[in-house]
Design a protein that fits this description.
GO molecular function: methylmalonate-semialdehyde dehydrogenase (acylating, NAD) activity
Organism: Pseudomonas matsuisoli
Oligomer: single chain
Largest sheet: 7 strands, mixed
Enzyme class: oxidoreductase
Distance between the termini: 76 Å
EC number: 1.2.1.27
Family: Belongs to the aldehyde dehydrogenase family.
Number of helices: 16
Strand content: 15-25%
Strand order of the largest sheet: 14-15-16-13-12-18-19
Helix content: 25-40%
């Protein structure tokens, strides 16, 4: 009998009563791993009600007690790293090494949450007027919710609920219905670490559950990571319902290569950033802009890409695993066809690779297009596959102008030995996250994820210092204490003296 994924409501893993289910498929084999329910409206309401009830006591839990839970949680994640990576690879497809990286980058946020005592600090001004002090408190909002994508089923849930809960909120999580199993194992470990019943809840589903989260009157804030189409819908619907919303969305990340860059290091970085995780990450380098004589490096880049091993994620030596689904495979194949028909040069065709033992897998090998222009579909759309578009620019300023004209602003990188060029680049580029000889500039959690423009809706990022602001409200208190023997007089002015 196929395993069923449970809901988490009020500290209990419960069987859904829904009639709508979806199979969780191993993308390398098409084997059915489990079935996930699409939660009913009543089940979503129960999860939110559980979180609402738990908030009354959790918000008053001492900050040190909250911190110690996350100290225990990070220890449990470390102890179960191999198990978590194996689950993730089976349902999502990425290599075991990449899966461990997925878990580890989430673990870093858990470690940051354990330091909440130093993060959730207010401010105090003594004697702002005669005998008057003013101070601020950062207080939790209430029930918060998160909607996460398929491509990082460990990291992105760990971006969300640890910081929300550490700041005193309770949480309702909706993982991707395509690969929720590693997320659920992380939730089991969170309960083992000491998170009380109702503080963390999980519901599964599709658009109906997303809309229920956006509309629910008792949810105060929503965090989303995923496609631009869905993120825009979530932002507007949840904002209109009066919630705080942050949406990290689609991207078209460029890497500029100057002729003075270290050639071997640059090519290795480009290949890893473009084709790692089968290109299924919002920070993947999907466009390489070769400046001047760096255009001559294209044959070497193609050779580097040809040397990458395409296979199931758990196989030794695999560099590129399968795409998440048959639908994703069809979409990437269709975009490659459009690239050819629109006039790009297919320097490396990764379609229909022969993978021994995995004839039914959703595989596309590294694919490189040359001569790509701004008008082509493969440039305008986020492919979300192992496809690299190569463009050319005569100068650094031409490359900067090209990138700034693109509507997305998630990440960008430059490869150069010139400090002057790098400084000019970081000053002039209009993108939220900049890498200098770093192809995927995702910041560590003491900073915040700062994608911009069409890649982001909402002012505050999903982890780091910004997320403490997102998950708290500032209360300002102005106080004066009188000596019992003082006799006051009537003061009709607003100026305290």
């Amino acid at each position: 009998m196929t395993t069923t994924v449970k809901l988490l409501i009020n500290g209990e893993f419960v069987e859904s009563q829904t009639t709508e289910w979806r199979d969780i498929i191993n993308p390398a084999t098409q084997d059915v791993l489990a079935r996930v329910p699409f939660a009913t409206t009543d089940e979503v309401d129960r999860a939110v009600a559980s979180a609402q009830a738990a908030f009354k006591t959790w918000r008053k839990t001492p900050i040190g007690a909250r911190s110690r839970i996350f100290l225990k949680y990070q220890q449990l994640i470390r102890e179960h790293m191999k198990e978590l990576a194996a689950i993730l690879t089976a349902e999502q497809g990425k290599t075991l090494a990449d899966a461990e990286g997925d878990v580890f980058r989430g673990l870093e946020v858990v470690e940051h949450a354990a330091g909440i005592g130093n993060l959730q600090l207010g401010e105090l001004a003594n004697n702002v007027a005669s005998g008057v002090d003013t101070y601020t408190l950062l207080q939790p909002l209430g029930v918060c919710a998160g909607i996460t994508p398929f491509n990082f089923p460990a990291m992105i849930p760990l971006w969300m609920f640890p910081m929300a809960i550490a700041t005193g909120n309770t949480f309702v999580l909706k993982p991707s219905e395509q690969d929720p199993m590693v997320t659920m194992r992380l939730c089991e470990l969170a309960l083992e670490a000491g998170i009380p019943p109702g503080v963390l809840n999980v519901v599964h589903g599709g658009p109906n559950v997303v809309n229920a989260i956006c509309d629910h009157r008792d949810i105060k804030a929503v965090s989303f990571v995923g496609s631009t189409r869905v993120g825009t819908h979530v932002y507007h619907r949840a904002s209109q319902a009066g919630k705080r919303v942050q949406c990290m969305m689609g991207a078209k990340n460029h890497a500029i290569v100057l002729p003075d860059a270290n050639k071997e290091q640059t090519l290795n970085n480009l290949a890893g950033a473009a084709f790692g995780a089968a290109g299924q990450r919002c920070m993947a380098v999907s466009v390489a802009v070769l400046v001047g004589e760096a255009h001559d490096w294209l044959p070497d880049l193609v050779t580097k890409a040809k040397g990458l091993k395409v296979s199931a994620g758990h196989e030794s030596g695999t560099d590129v695993g399968p795409l998440i689904s048959c639908a994703a495979l069809d979409r990437v194949g269709s975009l490659i066809e459009r690239g050819v028909s629109e006039g790009a040069t297919l320097s490396l065709d990764g379609r229909n690779p022969s993978i021994s033992g995995y004839a039914n897998g959703n595989f596309v090998g590294p694919t490189i297009f040359d001569g790509v222009t701004r008008e082509m579909s493969i440039y305008k759309e986020e492919i979300f596959g192992p496809v690299l578009c190569v463009m050319h620019a005569a100068t650094l300023d031409d490359a900067i102008e090209l990138i700034n004209a693109n509507p997305n602003g998630n990440g960008v990188a430059i490869f150069t030995r010139s400090g002057a060029a790098a400084r000019h680049f970081q000053e002039e580029i209009d993108v939220g996250q900049v890498g200098i000889n770093v192809p995927i500039p995702v910041p560590v959690p003491i900073f915040s994820f700062t994608g911009s423009r069409a890649s982001k809706l909402g002012d505050l990022g999903p982890y780091g210092k910004q997320v403490v602001q997102f998950y708290t409200q500032t209360k300002t208190v102005t106080e004066r204490w009188f000596d019992e023997n003082d006799v006051g007089t009537v003061n009709t002015t607003i100026n305290l003296k």
